[in-house]
């Protein structure tokens, strides 16, 4: 039974994301789910920035994935370097229509078609400090739990 839908009623799709960005996200979610990674969309970090996707591995490794749906989307966004302080690996995710060479070589790259995705380029590792890892992991757990409770309440309203 699906608890949270990817459809129009999904509270994690708040209108700021383009249809293309939502499709990119969906493909990345399929890939990471198949890889056994826990994935949380739209996580607000301690610096106030909101990461598009954050993964948590069984080993506690944290990856951030920044979705870029066009060349212009990448060119106008200058906030992504700030994400490095909150992850072990930083990736961009895009679709096949965006040239891969616009993305910095010191970041990983994922190409998504909406039904799946593939890792086009691995991201270099830059390990988080233990205190930062603990803080992000606790935030991740708290937000994921809150969203699960909200989804359950929405799915089964009180009568």
Describe this structure in words.
There is one protein chain. The chain has 159 residues and is an alpha/beta fold. 30% of the residues lie in helices and 23% in strands. The chain contains 3 helices and 6 strands, in the order αβββαβββα. The chain has helices spanning 19-34, 71-76, 130-155; strands at residues 38-44, 50-56, 62-67, 89-94, 108-112, 117-121. A 6-stranded mixed β-sheet has the order 1-2-3-4-5-6. A hairpin with a 5-residue loop joins β1 (38-44) and β2.
Summarize the model shown:
This protein has 159 residues and is α/β, with parallel strands linked by helices.
List descriptors:
MmcB-like; globular; disordered N terminus; 3 helices; alpha/beta; 6-stranded mixed β-sheet; 30% helix; MmcB family DNA repair protein; 159 residues
- What proportion of the residues is helical, as a percent range? 25-40%
Q: Give the spatial strand order of the biggest sheet.
A: 1-2-3-4-5-6
Low-confidence stretches: 1-11
Shape: globular
Oligomer: single chain
* Mean pLDDT across all amino acids: 89
Structural class: alpha/beta
The N- to C-terminal Cα distance equals 21 Å
The number of helical segments is: 3
The count of β-strands is 6
Rg result: 16 Å
Main beta sheet strand tally, sense and closure: 6 strands, mixed
Summed up, the domain count is: 1
């Amino acid at each position: 039974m699906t608890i949270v839908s990817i459809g129009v009623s999904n509270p994690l799709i708040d209108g700021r994301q383009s249809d293309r960005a939502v499709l990119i996200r969906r493909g990345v979610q399929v890939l990471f789910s198949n890889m056994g990674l826990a994935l949380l969309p739209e996580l607000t970090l301690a610096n106030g920035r909101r990461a598009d996707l954050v993964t948590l591995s069984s080993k506690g490794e944290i990856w951030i994935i920044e979705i870029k749906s066009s060349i212009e989307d990448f060119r106008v966004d200058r906030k992504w370097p700030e994400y490095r302080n909150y992850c072990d690996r930083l990736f961009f995710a895009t679709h096949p229509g965006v040239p891969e060479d616009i993305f910095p070589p010191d970041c990983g790259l994922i190409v998504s078609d909406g039904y799946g995705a593939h890792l086009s380029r691995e991201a270099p590792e830059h390990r988080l400090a233990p205190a930062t890892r603990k803080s992000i992991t606790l935030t991740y757990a708290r937000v994921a739990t809150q969203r699960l409770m909200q989804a359950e309440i929405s799915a089964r309203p009180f009568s």
